[in-house]
Write a structure and sequence with these properties.
The chain has 445 residues and is an alpha+beta fold. Helix content is 21%, strand content 31%. Bound molecules: fe (ii) ion (2 copies). Residues 159, 161, 190, 222, 224, 339, 341 line the site of one fe (ii) ion.
Length: 445
């Protein structure tokens, strides 16, 4: 063994001495400052479909899907099969053509495709892929809503907005793994920091993969999803055009607000998105009609700016004065909001006061790393600052249970709204009222 080792040792030292000189120039490279990858390279559209996103639809027999490609694609289609247990035969797939719009952004030109998969049966698992006949996505799956489930769940998320790829991804993944069977994912606005920045949307889609490919999204815009057309007049804001180019939300809202104001029904629930960046009166006139014909047991309304803010400087009594009486009058059960970059949840509230067997629970939450100071309002019962969260909502005919969990999967809040046959409500809280309000990181103690 000895001579062998010696020979190997000689060979090894020869190899090192002959390779080392050619490696030496690398030392210079290691000492260079790191280079930032160009945005165009990082988020460039290619022939390969990306940013694939399912959205909720008014008709559960239809599943909309949107995606992005480079501009050479001229035959965008989606192929669909009922998911088999074994290999998928593309020849057995039904094909649906997509409508396409061209988008110009700092990343260059790209195409956004929208297809609506129709004729779906409730409670079935489908496999689909998007492409152009040559370049295809993976076969991803989605399940159509059950028509008569015992219960089902959905996820609610507050602002993601900042450092999305870096710090939202872990929360999105925790939520997805915790609630893999979510019927849909609802996002309460400020999805990105600047709605007209295509690269930030690139981060958003990357952070939420593969969720957006397999679970339908519904979202309402926040102030940051708007753009400022004239930098000299920052008061004028318009919804970034990309919102409706890349998301196919229901178009049943008022004229001019389609795609940000809408509703859809799932078992026992009428779910409404309002847009608090736009005048509220026309939206409430529309909602009056939508709720007049509402036969669902539960009404859930989502929008961006909170009715009961957990930050003094962000509180708006005029917004509250318009929305709260409307929700009291229409007996809305749950209001989901964002914007405050905290977690804050009220008890049952009716006519701006605590209520016992009627009223509305208001909740705002935050997914991303941007965190604001907490200033509780008297009606708040559960609060958290310096915490990233996701909410799992479980729906049955008689109950709405909301569990708010931190980025670590720990339960921060857990409450259940119960509704009796006579329509009376009861709020059951799993915890005593709770406030988690540490000093922000880096604050001198
Ligand atoms: Fe906001
Ligand atoms: Fe925000």
């Amino acid at each position: 063994m000895g001579p062998m080792l010696t020979r190997r040792g000689v060979l090894a030292s020869f190899a090192v001495s002959s390779v080392l000189p050619s490696l030496l120039p690398l030392r210079g490279m290691w000492n260079r400052a790191p280079k930032r990858m160009a945005l165009e390279d990082r988020h460039r559209a290619t022939l390969q479909p990306d940013r694939i996103c399912l959205t909720v639809s008014e008709d559960p027999a239809i599943q909309p899907v949107t995606w992005r490609t480079s501009t050479e694609v001229d035959t965008p289609v989606v192929q669909v099969v009922e998911a088999p247990r074994g290999p998928i035969d593309p020849k057995s797939a039904q094909e649906w053509k997509a409508a396409t719009v061209a988008v110009e952004s700092a990343l260059g030109a790209s195409l956004r495709h929208t297809a609506r998969i129709g004729g779906l049966t409730p409670g079935r698992l489908y496999a689909y892929r998007v492409g152009d006949g040559e370049n295809w996505s993976e076969w991803a799956t989605f399940r159509t809503p059950e028509s008569q489930p015992k219960e089902y769940r959905f996820v609610y998320l507050g602002d993601s907005q900042n450092d999305i790829l870096g710090q939202v991804t872990r929360v999105a993944r925790a939520a997805m793994l915790d609630c893999p069977d979510a019927a849909f994912v609802a996002h309460g606005g400020d999805l990105v920091e600047r709605g007209d920045r295509d690269d930030l949307w690139g981060e958003w889609f990357e952070a939420y993969q593969p969720w957006t490919r397999q679970t339908a999204l519904c979202a309402t815009p926040g102030n940051h999803d708007y753009r400022i057309p004239d930098p000299n007049n920052r008061d004028v804001r318009v919804l970034a055009e990309i919102w409706n180019q890349q998301f196919d939300f229901p178009k049943n809202g008022p004229e001019g607000l389609k795609g940000s104001v809408y509703f859809f029904d799932r078992p026992w629930v009428r779910f409404v998105s309002l847009n608090t960046m736009e005048p509220l009166e026309p939206q409430l006139r529309w909602l009056e009609r939508v709720l007049a014909g509402n036969t669902q047991r539960w009404t859930i309304v989502m929008f961006h700016h909170p009715v009961y803010s957990s930050g003094n400087e962000r509180d708006s009594s005029s917004r509250r004065g318009i929305l709260e009486p409307f929700f009291s009058r229409h007996n809305v059960d749950l209001v989901l909001q964002g914007h405050d970059h905290t977690y804050a949840r009220t008890g049952l509230v009716r006519n701006d006061r605590p209520a016992k067997d009627q009223g509305t629970v208001y909740l705002n939450s935050v997914t991303g790393p941007k965190q604001y100071r907490l200033t509780p309002a008297p009606l708040h019962r559960s609060l958290a600052a310096q915490t990233q969260l996701y909410q799992i909502v479980t729906v049955t005919a008689d109950s709405l249970r909301v569990v708010a969990k931190t980025a670590l999967g720990e339960v921060h809040d857990d409450f259940t709204l119960r509704k009796g046959r006579d329509g009376s409500k009861r709020l059951v809280e799993a915890f005593r009222p709770k406030v988690y309000n540490p000093a922000p990181a880096g604050t001198p103690s």
